[in-house]
Amino acid sequence: MRRSVEEIRRTRVTDIAQRVAKLEWQWAGYIARRTDGRWGLKVLEWRPRTGKRSEGRPPTRWTDDIRRVVGCRWRQAAQDRVLWNSLQNPFFFFFFYLSPAVDVNWLR
């Protein structure tokens, strides 16, 4: 095991990437469960007027990561809090597995 991973465990420092992923997951669930018609859900559903994104490889939207783990019906899955919370660890694994700078073994 790398020394830096040992230091993280010993000092209990939260990795910023892990914190961001957790907050992203929680916010997505919160917004998907809202029923009051506020702007959060409208922002998630927004599409450009032309119906197209820019040419080339478009930047990844944060909902794209959630769709890869949960599927296109992720907003329906978020309605069930137990199901949504059970999908959090697979999302973290997916999120960190794509980042080559992160040692996946320390997620256990």
Automatic annotation (TrEMBL):
<protein>
    <submittedName>
        <fullName>Jg11703 protein</fullName>
    </submittedName>
</protein>
